[in-house]
Design goal:
By secondary structure, the chain is mainly alpha-helical. The protein is built from two helices and two strands, in the order H-H-E-E. Strands 1-2 form a two-stranded antiparallel ribbon.
Length: 111
Amino acid sequence: MNRFATKNDQSPLHFLPRIRLIYFLCPLLLILFILGLSSISETTVSRQQESLENALNRDIIHCYAVEGFYPPSLEYIEEHYGLVYDKDLFFVDYQPIGSNLRPDVTILLKQ
């Protein structure tokens, strides 16, 4: 007749190890989540910079192929070839050397 018997011999403190485990795991999971978001953010910025480099190189080559000269300025590429980038995030140093020499382009991340 033990199947109808209740266990009253357990103290209310038998949940204490589980509660301690929860207090340990919750901050640990939160820290791991924040580190994961930070890693994703860094990866996204590096891919944006790589994409900007590719787009800028493509537009410079396209301008030379179509018009017969390299773009005289970065504004020229933005106006005629539709280059758009986040100016708050990146600094583009565009130094034209001549109409028949490839310009020196440097892309820097603003921090």
